[in-house]
Amino acid sequence: VTRAKTILSELRKPSVPVGEPPSVWRQLRNILFASVINILLLAIPISWALHFAVPNQYTLVFLFSFIAIIPLAKLLAFATEELSMRVGETLAGLINATLGNAVELIVAILALVKCELRVVQSSLVGSILSNLLLVLGFCFFAGGTRFSEQGFAISATQLNSSLLTLSVIGVLIPAAFDMVSSQITTFDQDTEQRDILKLSHGVAVVLLIIYLSYIYFQLFSHKNLYNDENSTRPETVRYAAHDGPSRTEVAKAKARRALHIAPKRTDTEQQEPEKEEVPAEPELSLAMAIGLLVVVTILVAVTAEWLVDSIDGLASSGKISKEFIGLILLPIVGNAAEHVTAVTVSVKDKLTLSLGVAVGSSIQIALFVIPFTIILGWIIGRPITMLFDPFESIVLFLAVLTVNYVVQDGKSNWLEGMILICLYVIVALVFWFYPGTEPTGLLNCTA
To answer: Which residues form the signal peptide (predicted)?
Structure first.
């Protein structure tokens, strides 16, 4: 009990001291001018007005609702960062990844209630693809424009790769079961449908148990693995034209560490006093950050409802498929804030944190949001299963396989980022033409 209290106190302790928040007026100004994309907040009243005034104009309603959620996602990330400032680095990463998926979770729940099961499944798979390929690709590419090579914690990354592989297996097994059982003549279709539904419920429960174990592992038993200064992190190498250590200096530093030889300090360094930690200056108070989270979440929920309502009409027009909407467009909206945050910290050579945002968010979608959605559908009577579109499942497997190869050496460069980005473009191009199937239509779903 004493050890648990000590660990909890360390998790709650900020990594740096936090100063006093500004005045209320100043906090409101900070919220309003938090980002230049806040000008898109004007799309919120427009989308609401269009929904009530011209509900049959599905394209307009979808477009303005789509635009409105982007600044809301950014404000959600802004409030989350202010909240994370008050806790330790590991807990802050978990809070960022969890609340960063709030938009995806809200959209999935609303679509589930309205029996848009195909949209639910494709949007969740699309969120994983967007984080792994687009967000992570831009992190590697942006960091590669400043550094020749960037290192990140290998142990934590390998563990995350294992968790992602496990999540893909959880998606592929029901598809394999469906393929084999459909070829057995003694296995009638009704029995197959109900067995797949029961199988999905069981797999969802197991994945949630794994997720809870992962949280305990990350926050308690092995929290040092997620430290950006982890000893297994390869050295970052700058370009020759930049100021900083050269490749030769980095090699010498590695050799000194291997021989346990401390580098010689100059007289100036010996006389230099230790620097005191400068308190971080928060832009919001704790109460204002929590209040902003609540208000933005409500706005996201309402706007997302108009977005989901317009999907059927937009898809029925034949201009765009449900598959592309769910797999590509909705994840881009939900990951907008995470995208900006991850790229920003990668340029500052905090690539472990970038991976924590991008890959950690994918793990949360795979091990928490998808199983939670399955169980919620079980509770409210929506027959959503782990049987995803077979083509989506194959693409997801190939994406995870590619990411595993890219991160296995613990180093990144701009070309690896370009590879991931181009792979995402290929996926988006393919799904623009792919009509999709209805694996979720095993059982009737009525709203």
So the answer is: none
Please state whether beta strands 147-151 and 411-412 pair in parallel, antiparallel, or not at all (unpaired). Answer: antiparallel
Query: Who contacts 126 (Cβ-Cβ below 8 Å, separation ≥6)?
Result: 326, 327, 328, 330, 331
Q: State pLDDT tens for residues 10-50.
A: 555 555 666 677 888 888 888 888 778 888 889 999 999 99
Cα–Cα distance, 124 to 105 (Å, whole number): 9
Please check whether residue 156 is in contact with residue 218, taking contact to mean a CB–CB distance below 8 angstroms. Answer: no
Tokens 């898809």 map to which residue? 315
User: What pLDDT does 178 receive?
Assistant: 78
Number of H helices, E strands in the chain: 20, 3
The C-alpha atoms of residue 286 and residue 306 are separated, in whole angstroms, by 31
**Quick check: 421 pLDDT over 90?**
yes
Token readout for 324 is: 């592309």
**How far is 82 from 86, CA to CA, in rounded Å?**
7
Give the end-to-end CA distance of the chain in Å, rounded to a whole number. Answer: 47
**Residue ranges in 151-285 assigned as alpha helix (H):** 154-181, 189-216, 247-258, 267-271
Strand pairing report for 237-238 and 147-151: antiparallel
Beta-bridged to residue 238, according to DSSP, are 147
For the entire predicted model, the pTM comes to 0.80
| Residue 415 near residue 144, CB atoms below 8 Å | yes
Q: How far is it, in rounded angstroms, from Cα 148 to Cα 250?
A: 13
Say whether pLDDT at 248 is over 50.
Answer: no
CA distance 437 to 403: 26
Return contacts of 17-20, CB within 8 angstroms, 24+ apart.
17/277, 17/278, 17/279, 17/280, 18/85, 18/86, 18/279, 18/280, 18/282, 19/279, 19/280, 19/281, 19/282, 20/282
pLDDT on residue 269:
45
Q: Which of 80, 91, 99, 93 is nearest to 13 (CA)?
A: 91
User: From CA 324, how far away is CA 123, in angstroms rounded?
Assistant: 9
Cβ burial, residue 109 (10 Å; 0-12/13-18/19+): buried
245/433: higher pLDDT: 433
CA distance 51 to 329: 19
CA distance to 34, 185, 229, 250, 407, per residue, from 254 (Å): 41, 64, 15, 6, 21
Q: What is the pLDDT of residues 144-156, one digit of tens each?
A: 888 888 887 777 7
Q: Find, among 403, 392, 396, the residue nearest to 435 by Cα.
A: 392
Q: What pLDDT, in 10s, does the model give residues 99-125?
A: 667 778 888 888 888 888 888 888 889
